[in-house]
Amino acid sequence: MSAPYTLLIATLLVLAMSQPAFAVRPISALNPVPANRFYTLLSCRALDTRDLLGPTGGQPLVGGVTRTFALAGRCRIPRVASAISANVTVVGPTLAGNLSAYAADIPAPATSVLNFNAGQVRGNNVLLSVAQDLAATLAVRPDMAGGTVHLILDVNGYYAPTGNWPPVE
């Protein structure tokens, strides 16, 4: 290797080592981000819209209609949870479409967590933010031209702030 190339490589290495690997943005004192910890759970069915009379059930989701579910208190999810780890499953969609799931206190994202065809049973593992409303509310919306679909949500963990609060409320 010739001297100019060696000098160039050495200069790039020095520059790379003197710069942070990523930009660090200061957190406002008015809106600090609390430290979170992941708490594992035995798999637990938080929602099942096929169970019309049960505590986690209700009517099937309707295409194009957003529905919210308060998850706090279900499956040991505390009011202060910030996100959940879960398996989302759709059952018996009458038409093809996709499902969005997101924290109920933010606008709907442009992405889905699951795509499906009519009549399919489809599942997907997800990490989902939940609303910071002390009810850990999750919004779900099937994007399909009318029709209905059943939703099953099996939770296996959640994220919540660390500290001396009871992990289960």
Folded structure, characterized:
The protein has one helix at 3-18; strands at residues 36-48, 61-62, 67-70, 83-91, 97-103, 114-116, 121-129, 137-143, 148-161. It is mainly beta. Strands 1, 2, 4, 7 and 9 form a 5-stranded antiparallel β-sheet that branches. Strands 3-8-5-6 form a 4-stranded antiparallel β-sheet, with no helix packed on it. The longest helix has 16 residues, at 3-18. Residues 11-29 have low confidence and may be disordered.
Mean pLDDT, rounded to whole units?
A: 82
Tally of DSSP β-strands: 9
Helicity level, as a percent range? Answer: under 10%
Number of helices: 1
- Through-space gap between termini: 65 Å
Summarize this structure as a short list of keywords or feature phrases.
9 strands, Jelly Rolls, 169 residues, 4-stranded antiparallel sheet, mainly beta, 5-stranded antiparallel sheet, 1 helix, 40% strand
Care to give the gist of this entry?
The protein is mainly beta.
